[in-house]
Write a structure and sequence with these properties.
The protein has a single domain, classed as Nucleic acid-binding proteins (OB fold (Dihydrolipoamide Acetyltransferase, E2P)), CATH 2.40.50. Helices cover about 35% and strands about 30% of the residues. The protein contains three helices and six strands. Strands 1, 2, 3, 4, 5 and 6 form a six-stranded mixed β-sheet that branches. The longest helix has about 35 residues.
Length: about 180
């Protein structure tokens, strides 16, 4: 019993250190993210997304807090994990922003539904992942990557409603080769 308590305390301590290190790495990564440049067609897409934002309670259009693109496709692993964790913890701060991420392709099938994921963890279990939604012009399986293949996904991080559940995903996604 004593070993279990010790292991829990040790695990919590390591988690705190990891988060502190991730926050530090995230701060360093911000300089690279701010300098991220997308093509003009991507900027036009981003403009459409922010202009067509959700309406607030007063009927006025809401815009994201920060419209700068997030590009962690070339970042160090720790910075990527920190940024993805921040996106998962505070998704409303990233809503409507263009994102570009690099990871391994994974998919889950639940009944007739298919979930396409970009994994960022080494064991490919999807513990640290983002769902992405490709347009219908992508045909499965011809236009989709192979399981575990390294991919770069670009799109708009947005809130999705499905079966009465809200979640965030990379929408209007495209695979960059």
């Amino acid at each position: 019993m004593r070993n279990v308590r010790y292991m829990r305390k040790l695990g919590i301590g390591l988690l705190c250190l990891t988060l502190a290190f991730g926050a530090t790495a995230c701060g360093k990564q911000n300089n690279k993210i701010e300098r991220a440049v997308f093509t003009s067609s991507d900027a036009a897409t981003q403009g459409e997304e922010t202009e067509a934002g959700e309406q607030g309670e007063d009927g006025a259009k809401k815009t994201p807090n920060n419209t700068k693109p997030v590009d962690v496709s070339g970042a160090e692993k720790e910075a990527v994990l920190a940024e993805i964790s921040a996106m998962q913890l505070t998704p409303e701060e990233y809503e409507g922003r263009m994102v570009r991420v690099k990871g391994k392709y994974h998919f889950n099938e639940v009944g007739e539904d298919r979930y396409d994921l970009v994994n960022f963890d080494d064991d490919n279990e999807g513990l640290v992942s983002l769902e992405f939604i490709l347009p219908e012009s992508y045909k499965y399986p011809d236009d989709y990557p192979k399981e575990g293949e390294e991919i770069v996904v670009e799109g708009v991080f947005d809130k999705i409603e499905s079966y009465g559940i809200s979640f965030y995903a990379i929408t209007n996604a495209k695979l960059i080769k």
